[in-house]
Automatic annotation (TrEMBL):
This is ABC transporter ATP-binding protein. The keyword Cell membrane applies. PANTHER family: ABC TRANSPORTER ATP-BINDING PROTEIN, MALTODEXTRIN IMPORT ATP-BINDING PROTEIN MSMX. One of its GO terms (molecular function) is ATP binding. It comes from the Bacteria. SUPFAM superfamilies: MOP-like (SSF50331), P-loop containing nucleoside triphosphate hydrolases (SSF52540). It comes from Serpens gallinarum. Residues 4-241 form the ABC transporter domain. SMART domains: AAA. Keywords: ATP-binding, Cell membrane, Membrane, Nucleotide-binding, Transport. It holds the Pfam family OB_MalK.
Length: 365
């Protein structure tokens, strides 16, 4: 298997095609390339687990196809898909030793004992489980059990993709970093496609080269952590990625740009040229708090705003201010003086995104 391809995929648990909200997955087309380290990131209930279960074969989609390379696998049972799945809670046999747990999938396949032994020892070494091989699984800590669970997926040499469904949920926070680094190492060593489901953007960014952001049953953007931060292609990505998320303001089209209340915001020429094509659509501008410029003194082209709140987060500060009735945020460096009362703000054109019906308006060349 070289790649996992989703074609017109949709899934409804109640099979009533009576409206979008019935669908856990909505008209999805996507390609996961062989060997990629991917994260599937989105809030609770957006359809992440449903999607993983469809890829692994635990669930049959109501519509569309899952292809491994060019082969449709909808009717292939999970055990014949060359895919391993690691769940939130470790799946291990408590009464068996770690060794027997790791050996289980290989013995099931009828592999010879010598092959089982060498593979189990190889995987135990990768996961730092050598010293625990003879221990009963019930005597392991939660992170050791989860490593065994991962090992049971990795041990099969016919596996070409591993799906992780929030695998670090039960792990102590101080061990999470270690285990995430281990997963990265495994990815490099084994050339496996890995899809890692999480609702935590930090976890997604530290594991994945590319992140698929899911919202309401759809992948709304697929890109590097940097692309998601700098050019969110959907308002949801702007809002969901970042801490705090992007400032989003509903605006109307005006001469030279867009506006709200008595504020006019000039747009870059390429985006401005697109404005006449957007009539009838809901318009928003978005700007990340990191890109808002703030001054204590009035300056040419800056807008007057009222300080509402300043949160000092140790290494940076988050300023909440009111601009013409809109509550917005700016991120300030720790060494910046704490503003009070009135401030002046501006939004640099290259960081001001325009959205029409929630989708990013790309500027004309
Ligand atoms: P979480 O992060 O909370 O696990 P998720 O993003 O993985 O959420 P899913 O578990 O895939 O989301 O759920 C997507 C939608 O499908 C939700 O509205 C959920 O209530 C619904 N759903 C999930 N499983 C079932 C089921 N077995 N029967 C009916 N509806 C379901």
């Amino acid at each position: 298997m070289a790649e996992i391809r989703l074609h017109n995929l949709a899934h409804s648990y109640n099979r009533r095609p009576s409206g979008a909200e019935d669908y856990a997955i909505l008209e999805m087309n996507h390609v996961w390339e062989q060997g990629g380290a991917y994260a599937l990131l989105g809030p609770s209930g957006c359809g992440k687990t449903t999607l993983l279960n469809i890829i692994s074969g635990l669930l049959t989609p109501s519509q569309g196809e899952v292809l491994f390379d060019t082969k449709v696998v909808n009717d292939l049972p999970p055990e014949r898909r060359n895919i391993a799945q690691v769940f939130q809670f470790p799946v291990v046999y408590d009464t068996m030793t770690v060794y027997d747990n790791l050996a289980f999938p290989l013995r099931n396949q009828g592999q010879p004992a010598s092959k089982v032994d060498s593979r189990v020892r190889e995987i135990a070494e990768v996961l730092d489980l050598q010293a625990l091989l003879q221990r009963k699984a019930r005597n392991l800590t939660a992170d050791e059990k989860q490593k065994v669970s991962m090992g049971r997926g990795l041990v099969r040499d016919d596996v070409s993709a591993i799906l992780f469904d929030e695998p670090l949920t039960v792990i102590d926070p101080h061990l999470k970093w270690k285990l995430r680094r281990k997963l990265k190492q495994i990815h490099e060593q084994f050339n496996l496609t890995m899809i890692y489901v999480t609702h935590d953007q930090l976890e997604a960014s530290t594991f994945a080269d590319k992140i698929a952001v899911m919202h309401a049953g759809q992948i709304v953007q697929f890109g590097t952590p940097r692309e998601l931060f700098e050019r969110p292609r959907h308002t949801f990505v702007g809002f969901f990625i970042g801490s705090p998320g992007m400032n989003l303001i509903e605006v109307r089209a005006e001469a030279g740009g867009v506006g709200f209340a008595d504020v006019n915001l000039p747009l870059l020429p390429g985006v401005l040229r697109r404005l006449p094509t957007l009539s009838g659509k809901r318009l928003h501008v978005g700007i990340r708090p990191e890109f808002v410029q703030v001054c204590a003194e009035p300056r040419e082209g800056m807008l007057g705003a009222e300080v509402e709140h300043l949160a000092d987060l140790g290494t940076y500060k988050i300023l909440t201010f009111l601009l013409a009735g809109q509550r917005l945020k700016a991120r300030l460096a720790e060494e910046d003086p704490a503003p009070t009362g009135r401030v002046w703000v501006s939004f640099p054109g290259q960081w001001l995104m325009l959205y029409a019906d929630d989708l990013l308006v790309e500027g004309e060349e």
